[in-house]
Amino acid sequence: MSNKLCSVMQPTFLPWVGYFDLIDNSDDFIFYDDVQFTKQSWQSRNQIKTANGVIWLTVPLKKHELSSKINQIEINNAKPWVPKLLKTLFFTYQKTKHFKEAYTFFDDLFNAKEYLMLSDLSISIIEALIIRLGMCTQLHRSSNMKDLGDDRELRLINICKSLECDNYLSAKGSALYIEANRPSGIFPDYDIELYYQNFNHPEYSQIHGDFEAYMSIVDLIFNEGFEKSLEIIRSGRGKHLRSGQFDL
Questions:
Q1: What is the DSSP letter of 72?
Q2: Nearest-angstrom CA–CA distance, 122 and 104
Q3: Domains in the chain: how many in total?
Q4: Given this model, what pLDDT does residue 1 score?
Q5: Is residue 109 a part of any domain in this protein?
Q6: Burial 83-117 (b: 16+ CB within 10 A, else e)
Q7: Are 242 and 41 in contact (CB under 8 A)?
Q8: Does a structural domain hold residue 244?
Q9: Which CA distances in Å does 192 have to 151, 197, 205?
């Protein structure tokens, strides 16, 4: 294998800045779209800060089985959620310095087509954002990969092998299952180096009072603009962590 580094995350709706740091920090990023959907999770909603506090931006969904995978979830377009979302963005951020460029981008993005599937919507948004931000990471969907198997850890190993990545960068939260039985899990058995993301949320100029972290990237872009956003995201990046170098 090569010296490439890859990371895997479920596609989420308008993710927070740390999600984009993980993408930018990887040679290959895999949208983990063929795993079980979690109701009322980041997969279908995210937060922004308004004059009245933090609120949710939510995609309405059609009824589905509890066992449905992320890439099987349909959007309920019978509800006028896109105009409502854009109206919320307009009134929340109309006084920001970079309102015009940011609002035009999101207005064009959400009105470009009517998405039927949640995963297609979320992935298309992320793809458009990383291009606009200037990232060069190669993107993939796990649902397009063959012979990944069903075992949770082995699927990650097989993803790395299929993309010839001998380094894997994980979000810290995944350590709970990766290292459930032993440090670094099974990655050493397959000669794959396991690292964990080390990201300290940077502060940036933000309207509506004291700084609120962990908002959707939408908040950063409206407040700081596209040109400065990637620099701000990268400013929160620390050296990769190893097993045992942080608390679970």
A1: G
A2: 18
A3: 1
A4: 54
A5: yes
A6: eebbeebeebbeebebbeebbebbeebbeeeebee
A7: no
A8: no
A9: 17, 16, 39
- pLDDT, position 83: 98
Q: How far apart are CA 27 and CA 2, in angstroms?
A: 11
pTM of the model: 0.96
Q: Which residues of the chain have pLDDT under 50?
A: none
What's the pLDDT at 245?
93
The residue whose two tokens read 């960068």 is: 169
- Give the CA angle between residues 58, 64, 65 to the nearest 5°: 130
Locate the DSSP E strands across 171-243: 193-196
Q: What is the number of helices (H) and of strands (E) in the chain?
A: 8, 7
Instruction: Identify whether the C-beta of residue 169 lies closer than 8 Å to the C-beta of residue 22.
Output: yes
The verdict on residue 245 lying in a domain is no
Amino acid 30: pLDDT: 99
Domain holding 215, by residue range, is 4-235
- Class of residue 194 by CB neighbours under 10 A (exposed 0-12, middle 13-18, buried 19+): buried
Instruction: State the Cα–Cα distance between residues 166 and 1, nearest whole angstrom.
Output: 6
- Beta-carbon-side half-sphere exposure of residue 7 (alpha carbons within 13 Å): 23
Helix ranges restricted to H, 56-151: 81-93, 99-111, 118-133
Radius of gyration in angstroms for the set of CA atoms belonging to the chain, rounded to a whole number: 18
H/E stretch holding 47 reads strand 45-50
101: its two tokens: 């460029």
